[in-house]
Every structure is written in structure tokens, then in C-alpha cells.
Amino acid sequence: MVTFTNLLQVVQHCDKYPYTVTNDGARLLLEDNVCVGTILPPVLNELVAYNQTLDPCPFVICDTAVHFNEHITTMDERTKTVETLMNHWRTQQTFSALAGWRNELYAVYGKDGQPAFVMERAATPLFGISTFGVHVNGFVLDQGEIKMWVARRSLSKPTWPGVLDNCVAGGIPYGYSTKETVVKECDEEANIPESLAQHAKNVSVVSYYTTSQYGLQPETEFVFDLELPLDYQPTPKDGEVECFYLWTLDQVKESVLRGDWKPNCALVVVDFMMRHAYITADNEPDYIDISYHLHRRLEFPCPKIALAIKSL
Amino acid sequence: MVTFTNLLQVVQHCDKYPYTVTNDGARLLLEDNVCVGTILPPVLNELVAYNQTLDPCPFVICDTAVHFNEHITTMDERTKTVETLMNHWRTQQTFSALAGWRNELYAVYGKDGQPAFVMERAATPLFGISTFGVHVNGFVLDQGEIKMWVARRSLSKPTWPGVLDNCVAGGIPYGYSTKETVVKECDEEANIPESLAQHAKNVSVVSYYTTSQYGLQPETEFVFDLELPLDYQPTPKDGEVECFYLWTLDQVKESVLRGDWKPNCALVVVDFMMRHAYITADNEPDYIDISYHLHRRLEFPCPKIALAIKSL
User: Fold this and answer.
1) Transmembrane stretches, by residue range (chains A, B) (predicted)?
2) CB-nearest partner of A220 from B179, B205, B288
3) Interface check A202 vs B, CB under 8 A
4) pLDDT tens digits for range A227-249
């Protein structure tokens, strides 16, 4: 594990993709030249090799850009094309990212925030696709003092086993509102009933651009605060969580600096501590820089969830 | 006044300096090439003319950069150099920005967030200097519903007379903590006693890059929420405020869309409405884009207020 001497290091450890990149591979473009991802050279090389085996080629590839070929024009066709490719790479064990296949579909948003296609969650880092989730800060007010419910991830999880996590978190399934996602994940991960989960409040959004052994991960997390009753205790349900702790913010901050947290969840915690005035400009020298790393502008289209759920 | 059809337009009306600029004048650099400002061509031309009248020249100027000349090395010397220049331009009525001279000194922060020099507040847009202030959202909880205290600026104010403003706001005098600034401004602008103002909580920071007739204004506002007692009413004191209104968030949002607010204060209000879950990803289609405009990364050094007040 990495330990940190200050909170700026904590957020930089997650939001670590350089801000100015001169040569970062090819951009994945839709018909209207909307950029929805970034393909680094190792993946691009494999994509070129794969593309040559098919006639007509599914992709048009140059050094700086990848397009779908002109015969692929609908959402279903783009989805099928990417699915076939990723299944091929999975079978060939080309990339370790695909060993963690989840059978969970993420939408890839294009022009005007409309979904352009959907793809397997585990494959998104190979194309540097921007992904969206919800994170819930469960907390109590104990005689005026905030205490936070902290989850320890299951030791059997494929990613980040045994490290600390937000009380509840998860990706947004296509067609779900953020609140519906929160209610679903509260039940699945922490056994929190809908009657309580409905009180979760969407109070922030955290965005960052991280990288891992699997590829590029520009990510956006809708942040919810959920005040729980003092006598209520979340409990593991679906095996994602080992156990829950109820900690003071001093304890939480110490654990963050010890590097005990999944990096992106540490960002959500830091955002919580800023919004609740535990971290302030008067006590944190890097206050502004930390805020920048919590709110990175990602140059990819965003979903318009409010419009999507209104139209259902 | 400008009216808006949605909140994204509201925030873009303030955070309006382009994100990618190819030719935006000369950068104002310190000895270590730290960039502390931007000088647009109209100001640069006048600076070149002024510089030629002095021997030795106070500045070294090329098309893309302005440095202090090598005989100017200390904070006092930089301060004196800029003061002499701005007084000259003020006397000559070269720039309308200087008609609003305030006799209020702002620090210009350089390497490691240390003040490199101080200069008259009204002159900062001519050099595109990054400035820092505090804004206070005064609010009450009325049977669980948030109502916000809204200030109408005095009709006699030189800038933005008669428009809506946050309950309390002000620049941070050199050497003040953000909380001390809040307490001072609460007293001066709204007659809020220290016993109440001390409860203001620093819960956010809003940054944006705006432009005006006066020049370039990259600005950072430390945001405080101050819950006031239901039976308490802020009142004008120093003549900056015409009157205060207590409005529901529906009323506040309507007034924001009507364009009744000072643009940067509208950003602080939108930030408040997001943090209090009045604006959410499920009801606002541009939720993420709006958040980006509230948290623009400004490529200038930031003050380290926490270190400065600790060292006093």
C-alpha cells in the first residue's frame, strides 16, 4: 500500500492522468467526431491486428483516431461490434482487464449525452471510456458530531480486496436514475431498506481521470449523503463487503492518509469532509488544489440522466 | 439584463473565458517563470509605451511574456513598481478599470503560494490577476425547508448597482484567515454579530474565469454556509446593501434565471443549491457541466491560507 503525508497526495494518487498530454494514443470517435475514449498504443496495436482479419473491417484506424467503419451506423451495430471484439480478446486472454469480466453493461455516451452504444464494464479501460457511478456516504450525527459508516471490501473481490470503501457504491445501469441506483445498491451491498435509502441526497459530483494496470479510467461519481439513525447498522448482504465500521472523521482522515482506501473512494471521503467543513481553507494548505482534483473536467460527453428518466 | 433558459447558461455567463486559447496576450511571469497573470494586447501596448519612458525599464517585455526587470527583486520593489504604473495610468485615465479605484490591496501569489507583491484591487483585471474572496450563504431552516437570505446591492455601488448578491461577500485582506474575513464582512455588510458569524462553515470553493469591460478576472471564492436563527434578520450597515430578502429556493432559482444576480454570486447560489440537493443529477440535465463551471482549474498559484495564518 501507498501511504501519504498530506491530502493533496491522496487525491493526486487517484486523479493521476496528466493534465497536458501530447501523445496519448488514438481518440475513439463517433460519426460526428465526438470523442468518447482514448486507445493507448498497446491496445491500438492489437486493434489493428484484429481489424485486418475481418472484411469489411469494423474500424477505420489511423495513428491518432479510431472510427467505426461506415457500415456500422446504429447503436445496436456499435454495441455488437465492440462486444465481438472484446469477446475475442477475452478468449485469447489478450488483456488482463478482461479477466475481471462482470457481465455488466455500461452505456457509452455520445452527442448530446445520448447513449451511442453499450459495452462490458470490465472492457471500458481498454478504450478509456468515461464511466459513471454513485457513491453514498452513510453517516450519523452523534450529539452533533459526524461519524461515518466505512465499508471494508470483501477479501474475495477481484479488485481492491480488503481495502476501505464508501458505505455503498455502484455503477449506474442504463436507464436507471441515480436515486434508483442508490436504492438498489443500498439494498444489495449494505442491507439498507428503501425506506432509509430514499433519504439519500445527491449533494455533489466528483470527477477524476485515473489509470490502472487495465488502462485509462476517466470516472464521474454522483455523491450522495445518507444520514442514518443512530441505532441503525448497515450489514453486508451480497458478499461485496466484509464489514462496516462507524468512525469519527479523525479516524477516517487517518485511514485515508495511511492509504487504506480504494483511491477513488478516498476522493469521495475528502469531498465529504470539505462539504461538512472538517477540511477548510483555514486548516488545509492545499484546499484549492484538492478541490480541483475532485472536480476534474473530463473532455467526454456526459449523460443527461434527468432527461433520460423523464422520457421513460 | 441577460435572461437565461437554463442553469448551464447562467454559469457559462460567468465562467466565460475560453477553455482553450491560442493567443491571449502576454503572460506575466515572476523570476522563476511562475505565471501570475495575463496581459491582453490593449494593456500590453500601453505597458510597452510606459516602459520606454523609464531608464532602467521596470519590465522586460516580449510578445508572449512580461517579466519584472532584474533590478526589481523583492516583494516591496514589485509592489512599488506596479503601484507607480497603475497610479500613472489612473492619472492619465488610460483604463476605465482604474476609475473604480478602491484603495484596497490584493496579494498576488507566486511560487508555493507565497505573496509576490500586492496591488490595488481595481487594477487586477488589467493584469488578469487571480483573486480570492469569501461568499456567505445566509439561510434559515423553516420547518425543514431552506430559505435563503438574498442581498440587493446598493444602487450607489460603482459595480453592479441594484442587482442581487449573496448575503455577505468580500475580498480577503492580506494576512486574514477566511473565517476572519467572513466575520468582518458579516459585520460591515449585514450587521451580523460575531457570535452568529462564527458559526459560518467553509463548505466549498467556487472558481471561474470571467471577463468584463475591465479585463480578465480569474477568481476563486471560498464559500461559507451560515444558518441563521429564524427570528433573526440581517440589515444593511455600510451602505453596500440596499435591502435583504428571505426567499425559498424556488424564488431564488427563478431570480437566477431572470438574470437578476451578479454573475459570480449566481454561481455561489447554484453551488449552494447543488450541495443542498435542490439541484440534482436526476432533475438537472446539465448537472455535470454545471459542476465543471463551478470548479474551473485556474493555472495560477493559489494562496496557502492555512500556512499563512499558522505562521502569524
Assistant:
1) none
2) B288
3) yes
4) 999 999 999 998 889 999 999 99
Q: How far apart (Å, rounded) are the C-alpha atoms in residues B84 and B119?
A: 10
Q: Please state which CATH number belongs to domain B7-17+131-310.
A: 3.90.79.10
Residues B130-174 have pLDDT tens digits of 999 999 999 999 999 999 999 999 999 888 999 999 999 999 987
Cis amide linkage into residue B56, ω under 30° from 0: yes
For residue B39, the tally of other CB atoms under 10 A from its CB is 24
Q: Which of A228, A201, A226 is nearest to A142 (CA)?
A: A228
C-alpha cell at B30: 515572476
A283 contact residues in B (CB cutoff 8 A): 306
Rounded CA separation A203/A54 (Å): 48
Q: How far apart are CA A225 and CA A197, in angstroms?
A: 10
What are residue B282's phi and psi, to 5 degrees? -85, -15
Could you tell me which residues are beta bridge partners of residue B168?
A: B136
What residue has cell string 449494505? A190
What is the per-residue pLDDT for B174? 78
Task: Determine contact: B114 vs chain A, CB below 8 A.
Answer: no
Note whether B307 contacts A284, CB cutoff 8 Å: no
Nearest by CB: A205 against B201, B207, B291: B291
Mean pLDDT value of segment B106-124 = 94
Q: Which CATH architecture has domain A26-124?
A: 2-Layer Sandwich (3.30)
Q: What are the sequence ranges of the domains in chain A?
A: 7-17+131-310, 26-124
Interface test with A, best of B204, B287, B310, B311 (most A CBs within 10 A): B287
Q: Is A297 exposed, middle or buried (0-12, 13-18, 19+ CB in 10 A)?
A: middle
Please give, rounded to a whole number of angstroms, the shortest distance from the CA of B160 to a CA of chain A. 27
Quote the pLDDT of residue B123.
97
User: Is B283 near chain A, with CB under 8 Å?
Assistant: yes
Q: Where is B142: in which H helix or E strand?
A: strand B131-142
Q: Do domains B7-17+131-310 and B26-123 have the same CATH topology?
A: no
Residue B281 contacts A where some CB pair is shorter than 8 Å: yes
Gap between the Cα atoms of B169 and B137, Å rounded: 9
Q: How many CB atoms lie within 10 A of CB A8?
A: 18
